[in-house]
Amino acid sequence: MTSLNSLKRMTMRPNKRVGRGGKRGKTAGRGTKGQNARAGRKKRPEMRDIIKKLPKRRGYGKNRGRSVDGTRLSAVAISLDRLEKLFESGAEVTSKTLAEKGAISTRTMPPAKIVGTGALTKKLSLKGVAVSQSARLAIEKAGGTISEK
């Protein structure tokens, strides 16, 4: 016959129920006073309160404006003086020719914008390059043409 000490337990032991008097005394195993000693104690996480106090949608990252595209390259400003030095009279100026002449990077190919600093005496035809208002006047005055595409 088997003895009691060799029997296997068939069910789980019940969980210790704490905080109901009995042999535990004083804090009944709960350790502290106040909110921590009460039943169903739920302290709000402190970090959450700190985060909620911060202002929303400031700066970069996930809070940056939805219309801002961080991957888009900003335009490189090219002066009329630079065009005067780089191109011959009657030449066609495109972003490709600007890259070949070394005015913009050939690796990243950022958009170029012609700005009206300096003077232009050569007749140039610009295609697909952004032009400022003052540069447009100077190019047309020199006899050049500007087309969007």
Automatic annotation (TrEMBL):
<dbReference type="InterPro" id="IPR030878">
    <property type="entry name" value="Ribosomal_uL15"/>
</dbReference>
<comment type="subunit">
    <text>Part of the 50S ribosomal subunit.</text>
</comment>
<dbReference type="InterPro" id="IPR001196">
    <property type="entry name" value="Ribosomal_uL15_CS"/>
</dbReference>
<comment type="similarity">
    <text>Belongs to the universal ribosomal protein uL15 family.</text>
</comment>
<feature type="compositionally biased region" description="Basic residues">
    <location>
        <begin position="10"/>
        <end position="27"/>
    </location>
</feature>
<dbReference type="GO" id="GO:0019843">
    <property type="term" value="F:rRNA binding"/>
</dbReference>
<dbReference type="InterPro" id="IPR005749">
    <property type="entry name" value="Ribosomal_uL15_bac-type"/>
</dbReference>
<dbReference type="GO" id="GO:0006412">
    <property type="term" value="P:translation"/>
</dbReference>
<protein>
    <recommendedName>
        <fullName>Large ribosomal subunit protein uL15</fullName>
    </recommendedName>
</protein>
<keyword id="KW-0689">Ribosomal protein</keyword>
<feature type="domain" description="Large ribosomal subunit protein uL15/eL18">
    <location>
        <begin position="78"/>
        <end position="146"/>
    </location>
</feature>
<dbReference type="GO" id="GO:0022625">
    <property type="term" value="C:cytosolic large ribosomal subunit"/>
</dbReference>
<dbReference type="InterPro" id="IPR021131">
    <property type="entry name" value="Ribosomal_uL15/eL18"/>
</dbReference>
<dbReference type="Pfam" id="PF00828">
    <property type="entry name" value="Ribosomal_L27A"/>
</dbReference>
<dbReference type="InterPro" id="IPR036227">
    <property type="entry name" value="Ribosomal_uL15/eL18_sf"/>
</dbReference>
<comment type="function">
    <text>Binds to the 23S rRNA.</text>
</comment>
<keyword id="KW-0699">rRNA-binding</keyword>
<keyword id="KW-0687">Ribonucleoprotein</keyword>
<dbReference type="GO" id="GO:0003735">
    <property type="term" value="F:structural constituent of ribosome"/>
</dbReference>
<feature type="region of interest" description="Disordered">
    <location>
        <begin position="1"/>
        <end position="47"/>
    </location>
</feature>
<keyword id="KW-0694">RNA-binding</keyword>
